[in-house]
């Protein structure tokens, strides 16, 4: 579909990339990856024709339509949301106008037997059939389906685009591109302006689309769910991996290990040649051999190694004061902006050490509740911040508060304490401020670079309540890994507002869902929450029973689930209950409880065993040589079925045990 041959781009002495050759085929879902500054956005601009390469060719057939969504674009504000989306169907609109004009002419003319009249009928029939085949009659339904999928309400359709924030206007542009149904879709960080629900909708849309897709994204879950091929820009070259992103990560690690071994062997060979030349340079009897070594040395092409992966570097928060048991308690909290109620009847308790996520569509009040906790805005109801709380707050506008006259290094050096000061360069490198970048003044940094710098500052301050509002929007994957590991090791409490599922996975143990003016609590991780949403209608989510934790988390969450899912028995009530039970009844009850507790533990052990085997089979099946091994596939299917049945038995035993403990 698109053929790239010998592509070279130069912005300075060293080319951004050179000799890049690849083909984009029908149905390709390509993840374009590489460190920041490697040239990913430049590659997309070249593919869509917005930028010319220094050398090489990009061949696009004349009948191939390319759709391109850049990270930043100039947006118009003179139309409504619906009118802006309708621009995607400009060809259909023009065709409809021609059809209406011909229809009007047919109605007015009376020369029914003339040749020109018959030609007009034939032309109208042909155009109308083409119009119907294009599905043009249904374009309004397509517009509504796409806009609602990207998070717009139907009441938003007639609102002027000028009333929406930049992020929402970017969603309109994305809707226009998707509605145009291009043959090749080029998307540069499309998830930066989407919430979790919209990202999932976009995943499904791309999976069902007939378009080829080239995608740049730092959302690991999204890019892995969408991709079936990975193009990596590294060391000025483009390497083509015919696998999805997760498999690419494994192959890339193996490739880098091979590069390191080859590099070490080459360095050893070079050192030996140099030693020989130095030793025998002035001996006439060795002059021929020395010249041969010099020529061999000149012919050696240095082996380049991919950039060092800093994601394994561990960064810890500095020690902080122990906070009270309940850092945040909300009781019937309500917030209104004029006649609009953002949320009401919000009652929640966040315990010390918990990592919780605030999720929901944009505009449902996540950042508003954070501002209430910070004391930045007034509200009604009771909101108590616990004893000894030191809050570290990362807002979306945090980057604007940095001192523009300091360098990157000075900004961090002023807040670093103790041994951390010895590792400032390593920390800056992990967040893409290595080498000369650390000497830049803050005032010359881009918005994304400032956000990353503000994040590093926060990581080094002694706090015990961490509040992060969309912390990953401007971080690449290695930097997000560093931040995630730091939060997991954090002794304090964390509230994270984010739409990045991969970042939240394994990090949070409780999810608060914002929607419809309510805040609902869901126990478990982010994928437990998402599984529940797929089962139930989103509008009825608040009325559904509280979700059950995943099997692995069951033991940890059992006590919490019991206390939150059912009324607890008071000590007085327990005493009355004991009196009403005979000794025999009490003994029988205890036997049943013991049997059920034993059964629950056995089920949990079996589940863990089955999950471990599934993980092993997953790793084996990801290897190309095992991909078609039907024995493994059959075993995988059987274990998956056994696991589902075991989980059902575990749930039944757990529910029965809960009913006895009430």
Please explain how this structure is put together.
The chain has 662 residues and is an alpha/beta fold. It has five domains: 1-65 and 183-242, Rossmann fold (3-Layer(aba) Sandwich), CATH 3.40.50; 80-180, Rossmann fold; 266-307; 313-547, Rossmann fold (3-Layer(aba) Sandwich); 571-661. The protein has helices at 40-47, 81-86, 90-108, 115-133, 139-149, 166-179, 196-208, 220-226, 245-280, 287-299, 366-374, 408-413, 424-430, 447-459, 477-488, 501-504, 526-535, 554-565, 571-580, 583-621, 630-661; strands at 2-10, 15-24, 29-33, 55-59, 66-69, 184-188, 212-216, 229-234, 237-241, 328-337, 340-350, 355-360, 380-385, 391-394, 465-469, 493-497, 510-515, 518-523. The strands form four sheets. The chain has a six-stranded mixed β-sheet with strand order 5-6-7-3-8-9, sandwiched between helices. It has a six-stranded mixed β-sheet with strand order 14-15-16-12-17-18, sandwiched between helices. Strands 2-1-4 form a three-stranded antiparallel β-sheet, with no helix packed on it. Residues 535-581 have low confidence and may be disordered. It comes from Xylanibacter ruminicola. This is Probable ATP-binding protein YbiT. Residues 2-260, 328-541 form the ABC transporter domain. Keywords: ATP-binding, Coiled coil, Nucleotide-binding, Repeat. Belongs to the ABC transporter superfamily. ABCF family. YbiT subfamily.
């Amino acid at each position: 579909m698109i053929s790239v041959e010998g592509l070279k781009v130069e912005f300075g002495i060293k080319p951004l990339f050179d000799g890049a050759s690849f083909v984009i085929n029908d149905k390709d879902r390509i993840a374009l990856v590489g460190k920041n500054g490697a040239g990913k956005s430049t590659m997309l601009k070249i593919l869509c024709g917005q930028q010319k390469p220094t050398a090489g060719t990009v061949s696009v057939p004349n009948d191939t339509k390319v759709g391109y969504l850049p990270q930043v674009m100039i947006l118009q504000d003179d139309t409504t949301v619906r009118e802006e989306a309708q621009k995607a169907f400009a060809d259909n609109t023009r065709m409809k106008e021609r059809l209406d004009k011909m229809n009007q002419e047919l109605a007015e003319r009376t020369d029914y037997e003339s040749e020109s009249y018959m030609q007009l009928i034939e032309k109208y029939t042909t155009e109308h059939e083409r119009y119907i085949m294009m599905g043009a009659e249904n374009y309004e339904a397509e517009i509504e389906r796409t806009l609602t999928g990207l998070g717009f309400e139907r009441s938003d359709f007639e609102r002027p685009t000028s009333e929406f924030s930049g992020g929402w206007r970017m969603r309109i542009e994305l809707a226009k591109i998707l509605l145009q149904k291009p043959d090749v879709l080029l998307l540069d960080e499309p998830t930066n302006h989407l919430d979790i629900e919209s990202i999932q909708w976009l995943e499904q849309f791309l999976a069902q689309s007939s378009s080829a897709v080239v995608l740049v994204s730092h959302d690991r879950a999204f890019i892995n769910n969408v991709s079936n091929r990975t193009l990596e820009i590294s060391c000025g070259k483009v390497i083509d991996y015919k696998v999805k992103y997760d498999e690419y990560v494994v192959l890339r690690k193996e490739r880098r290990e091979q590069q390191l071994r080859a590099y070490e062997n080459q360095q050893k060979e070079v050192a030996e040649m140099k030693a020989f030349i130095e030793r025998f340079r002035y001996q006439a009897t060795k002059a021929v051999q020395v010249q041969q070594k010099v020529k061999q040395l000149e012919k050696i092409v240095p082996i380049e190694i991919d950039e060092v992966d800093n994601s394994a570097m561990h960064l810890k928060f500095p020690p902080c004061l122990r906070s009270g048991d309940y850092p945040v308690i909300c009781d019937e909290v309500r917030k209104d902006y004029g006649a609009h109620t953002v949320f009401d009847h919000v009652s929640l308790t966040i315990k010390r050490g918990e990592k919780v996520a605030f999720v929901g569509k944009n505009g449902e009040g996540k950042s508003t509740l954070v501002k209430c906790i910070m004391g930045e805005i007034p509200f009604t109801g009771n909101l108590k911040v616990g004893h000894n709380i030191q809050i570290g707050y990362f807002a979306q506008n945090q980057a604007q508060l940095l001192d523009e006259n300091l360098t990157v290094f000075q900004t961090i050096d002023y807040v670093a304490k103790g041994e951390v000061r010895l590792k400032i360069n390593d920390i800056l490198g992990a967040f893409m401020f290595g080498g000369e970048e650390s000497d830049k003044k803050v005032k010359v940094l881009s918005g994304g670079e400032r956000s990353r710098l503000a994040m590093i500052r926060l990581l080094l301050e002694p706090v015990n309540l961490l509040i992060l509002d969309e912390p990953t929007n401007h971080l690449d994957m290695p930097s997000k890994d560093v931040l995630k590991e730091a939060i997991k090791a954090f002794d304090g409490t964390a509230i994270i507002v984010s739409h990045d599922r991969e970042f939240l996975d394994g990090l949070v143990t409780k999810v608060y869902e914002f929607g419809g003016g309510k805040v609902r609590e869901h126990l478990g991780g982010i994928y437990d929450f998402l599984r529940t949403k797929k089962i139930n209608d989103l509008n009825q989510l608040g009325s559904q029973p509280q979700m059950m934790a995943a099997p692995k988390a069951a033991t940890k969450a059992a006590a919490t689930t019991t206390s939150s899912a059912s009324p607890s028995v008071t000590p007085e009530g327990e005493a009355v209950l004991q009196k009403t039970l005979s000794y025999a009844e009490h003994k029988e009850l205890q036997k049943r409880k013991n049997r059920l507790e034993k059964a629950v533990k056995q089920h949990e052990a079996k589940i863990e065993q089955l999950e471990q085997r599934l993980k092993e089979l997953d790793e084996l099946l990801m290897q190309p040589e095992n991909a078609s091994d039907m024995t493994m596939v059959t075993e995988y299917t059987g274990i998956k079925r056994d696991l589902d049945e075991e989980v059902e038995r575990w749930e039944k035993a757990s529910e029965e045990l809960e009913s006895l403990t009430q």
